[in-house]
Structure formats: structure tokens, C-alpha cells
């Protein structure tokens, strides 16, 4: 049975966060995200900018786990929860904003 490695777990989760948030930022900025079609151009840029900033938080986990630096890993753990809460709040605001509009259908 393989031994559980916390460093590998942190590396995998932080890499996943980095790739996911970068993908959402790029897809949103290019206008391919169907859940943000109703947003104006400045809001679209702001939404993708927030995801791009959140993607940088994954770097602390990648660097910390690959170099065995516990200070960076603990910073990543704190920042990961902050990013998750921040992105959840922003997505909730986006949903509420879309239903407050007169046309709340997605084309």
C-alpha cells in the first residue's frame, strides 16, 4: 500500500486550483463563458481579473510543497480558503445580479 504524502496532496490541490482559475479567467476574458454573457465588458474584465488573481494563490502551495517549506504551505492553506470563499461570494453576486435583470435567461 502506498504511503500517503501530504506534500503530494498539497501539490495536487494547489496545481488544480491554479489551472482551474486560470482556465476560468481565460475563458471568461475571451467571452466564451456562457454564465457571464449578460455582463457588461468592464464587469467581464473584472470577473476574469479576480480569477487571475486567485490563480496566483496556488503558487504558494506548489512552491511550498516542492521545496518542503512549511511556511509557504501554511500560507497556501490560509489563502486557499480565502480564495474559495471570495470566489463563492463573487459567483453568488453574479447569480443574484443575473436574476435581478429583466431578461434572466441564458442564450
TrEMBL record:
Residue ranges annotated as transmembrane are 39-60, 81-100
Listed A to Z, the keywords are: Membrane, Transmembrane, Transmembrane helix
Q: What is this protein called?
A: 6316_t:CDS:1
Organism per entry: Paraglomus occultum
Amino acid at each position: 500500500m502506498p504511503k500517503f504524502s501530504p506534500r503530494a496532496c498539497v501539490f495536487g490541490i494547489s496545481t488544480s486550483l491554479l489551472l482551474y482559475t486560470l482556465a476560468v479567467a481565460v475563458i471568461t476574458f475571451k467571452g466564451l463563458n456562457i454564465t457571464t454573457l449578460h455582463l457588461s465588458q468592464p464587469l467581464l474584465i473584472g470577473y476574469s481579473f479576480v480569477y487571475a488573481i486567485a490563480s496566483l494563490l496556488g503558487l504558494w502551495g506548489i512552491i511550498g510543497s516542492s521545496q518542503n517549506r512549511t511556511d509557504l504551505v501554511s500560507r497556501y492553506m490560509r489563502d486557499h480558503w480565502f480564495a474559495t470563499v471570495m470566489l463563492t461570494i463573487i459567483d453568488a453576486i453574479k447569480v443574484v445580479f443575473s436574476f435581478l435583470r429583466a431578461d434572466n435567461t441564458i442564450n
